[in-house]
Design goal:
This protein is an alpha+beta fold. The protein has 6 helices and 12 strands.
Length: 233
């Protein structure tokens, strides 16, 4: 399909990307480690490392050596170089947040952004503003409209800094005290502080006692961007 698109006279072959939802997200995260020609990638829900997810994937694939040695997207993600957006939601029953974040960190791309939307739902979505903003900015400017520059969790404080081409409006902490698969946990949103200094936006929040996983979201209009995801053992 990508080769066909690139062959069309009305298509700029240097601006063809790949995106997929759910199983398509698995295919996306696999393909970008094989085909370097994509200008961008958006993996919605899907990722690699499914043999270790404590749900139906792990139950099916934990003993499948063909998957682990041949098909797992994580085997080749270090070869990916295009900008990537990993888009999911913490209550997803199929793909754990830890697995999504692990694939994000394995990608060899300098730009490998995370966007986690509480309550988003699992389906073939068509109206997420983050996708179009990401693609437009990457193709026009060579980088996304917002990038998470640093994230840290120290004791009971979480902090993340962002560089954004648009003014940010708010920040929230998303956290859970549950255990087990992230899709079965209860996630809570609480306000976080948001400040700007020298063109860098900083979101900060106090992490509730007993938290087992958390991240920060910053927002402007319909757009959301996410800090690093932290799993607290």
């Amino acid at each position: 399909a990508a080769a066909l698109l690139r062959s069309l006279p009305e298509v700029d072959p240097d601006k063809v990307g790949i995106m997929g939802c759910s199983w398509g997200g698995i295919i996306t995260s696999t393909a970008i480690g094989i085909d370097p020609r994509y200008a961008f990638a958006i993996a919605v829900y899907g990722c690699g490392g499914l043999d270790a997810v404590p749900n139906h994937w792990g139950g099916t694939l934990s003993g499948n050596e063909v998957y682990k040695k041949v098909w797992d997207a994580n085997l080749r993600l270090d070869r990916a170089r295009m900008p990537i957006l990993w888009h999911s939601w913490p209550q997803d029953a199929h793909f754990s947040m830890e697995a999504v974040n692990n694939s994000r960190k394995k990608a060899g791309s300098k730009i490998s952004e995370l966007c986690l939307i509480p309550g988003m739902g699992h389906g073939n979505l068509t109206d997420r503003a983050e996708w179009f903003a990401f693609v437009d900015s990457v193709l026009k400017d060579g980088k996304p409209w917002i990038q998470a520059k640093s994230s840290k969790l120290e004791e009971n404080e979480i902090e993340a800094s962002f560089e954004s081409t648009q003014p940010l409006e708010s920040a929230v902490l998303v956290s859970t005290t549950g255990t087990g698969h992230t899709g079965t946990r209860t996630w809570v949103e609480t306000p976080a502080t948001l400040t700007q200094e020298d063109g860098v936006w900083v979101a900060e929040a106090e992490v509730p006692a007993g938290t087992t996983a958390c991240f920060l979201n910053v927002k402007t209009g319909p757009l959301t961007a996410t800090s690093d995801y932290f799993e607290i053992k």
